[in-house]
Amino acid sequence: MQKQGLELKQTQRLSPLQIQTIKLIELPVQELEQKIRSELEENPVLDDTPDPDKQQDDDTPKDVSIDEIKDDGDIPAYKTRVNNWGKDPRPEYNTFSVKESFTQSLMEQLGFRNLSNRDFSIGAFIIGSLDGDGYLRRDIESLVDDMAFRAGVEVTEPEVERMLGVIQEFDPAGVGARDLRECLLLQLRAKTQTEDVRDAERILSEQFGEFTNRHFAKVMSRLNIDEDRLKAAITCITRLNPAPGGQMDDSFDDQAQQIVPDFVLEEHEGQLSFTMPRFNIPELRVNKKYSDLMASARNTDDKSSKEAASFIRQKIDSAKWFIEALKQRQNTLQRTMQAILDFQHDYFLDGDEANLKPMVLKDIAEITGFDISTISRVVNSKYIETHFGIFPLKYFFSEGMENNEGEEVSTRELKKALQECVDAEDKKKPLTDEQLVVEMGKRGYKVARRTIAKYRGQLGIPLARWRKEL
Question: Of 69, 73, 93, 134, whose Cβ has the fewest other Cβ atoms within 10 Å?
């Protein structure tokens, strides 16, 4: 039997200003520039020409949390101007390139081939089915079925096999492989065919099982090669890339090929500070002539004038919200970056990862008073330029564990120590995960074997038997 009843729920609705602020906070500085240009084109009330009557205190952002913003309708006049970033109106600024999108690169190579529309569609579908590391882990039959159901294209297995062969000729070598063996063989076949390369290809083609199990004596006997040739072939194999898709990065938008730092770290006699370069972001204000037009239109009974006044009012409100949202974005980014800088002060002095403290979003949220979701939006796609490199803000966040003295250390410090243990091991008798636990313990880190396995995988360190050398 169903029961009916009334239930009261209290929900919080975001104001237009809060929504606008949240959207602006998420944007990196380049996209912010585009957004401002778009707003200037769409809203005639917004003005980016210098204001001769600008008040001096407009340079200081209002210290308000976006969680406290109230949509109070009329915003005071001092809020209708914003001086966004720094004193230099248009400085030269540094950029650094991010890796080209993996999918984008493959699609460009596909476009260079002289293909029919049908073959291009098949190739594009295969590229879209590749995993992030460049492998095709789905069988051909499944791709044929998927193309029929999802793309509405009836194809045959030989057609898909043929186009997969085309994609396997693309850069990076090894892309489109269905397993590790095929991936390595594709890379060897793309190399100049020296004796080392031919030996390596024979090892993978004919003795893959014995090779992976480190049965080197059997490999030498069956292929009739000596130890020197085996070592040279193994060196050739170990230099191959087991994850060709990892050379490129799909974590950024395909069109965003350059990153502009949102913050620039400055150090002077041990004192740390940062600036927020203004770049091409103009100073915005509400054009006073539109306020005068609206005031004059209100004093008339003409219907068309009233409609014009209503339109101008909407545009003025929109402009005020946008200007205030920009102020709140600047304030939020400044307070968040300052909190990160204070929290990781020792690290920012010299960039030594050993000084990077465990830090999660909640830590910075508690310091700033912002919501965790706000901190997450600030951290996403924002970068800082330091004297030891350019880093995404996400780099400074990591979970922590305790060392033998009960002090909390970051996972990044643990990974660094693990890498040092592996680098220092005897390659003829590489350390197992259990032995790495002991070695980490000698360095003062309490780490479980499963944690070693997890970090080893994240660092791309293979199992002990794969690290063994002759």
Answer: 73
Determine if the peptide bond prior to 392 is cis (ω within 30°): no
Crossing angle, helix 117-128 and helix 102-112, to 10 degrees?
Answer: 160
DSSP assignment letter at 299: T
Among 157, 127, 153, 120, which residue's Cα sits nearest to residue 142? 157
The stretch 334-363 carries a mean pLDDT of 88
**CA dist., res. 204 & res. 214, Å (int):** 13
- DSSP lists the bridge partners of residue 274 as 265
Are 194 and 211 within 8 A, CB to CB? Answer: no
β-pair type (46-47, 81-82): unpaired
Phi, psi of 233 (to 5 degrees): -65, -40
Nearest Cα to Cα of residue 84 among 134, 24, 128: 24
Sign of CA dihedral 370, 373, 376, 382: negative
Mean pLDDT of the chain: 77
Top CATH class, 400-467? mainly alpha
**Res 395 pLDDT > 50:** yes
CA–CA gap between residue 315 and residue 39 (Å, rounded): 11
Quick one: angle between helices 227-238 and 195-206, nearest 10? 80
According to DSSP, residue 163 is labeled H
* Residue 354: pLDDT over 70: yes
Structure tokens at 137: 């882990």
Which pTM does this prediction carry? 0.49
- For residue range 244-301, list pLDDT tens digits in order: 876 544 443 333 345 678 899 998 887 899 988 765 566 777 777 776 666 666 666 6
Tokens linked to 325: 């949202």
Domain boundaries, the chain: 13-98+257-397, 102-247, 400-467
Paired sense of beta strands 271-275 and 46-47, if any: unpaired
Enclosing H/E stretch for 148: helix 140-150
Q: Which helix (H) or strand (E) holds 272?
A: strand 271-275
pLDDT tens digits for 146-177? Answer: 787 766 778 888 999 999 999 999 988 889 99
- Per-residue model confidence (pLDDT) at position 298: 62
- Mean pLDDT is highest, among 8-22, 100-114, 322-336, for 322-336
Contact 443/401 with Cβ under 8 angstroms? no
CA gap 248, 382 in Å, rounded: 20
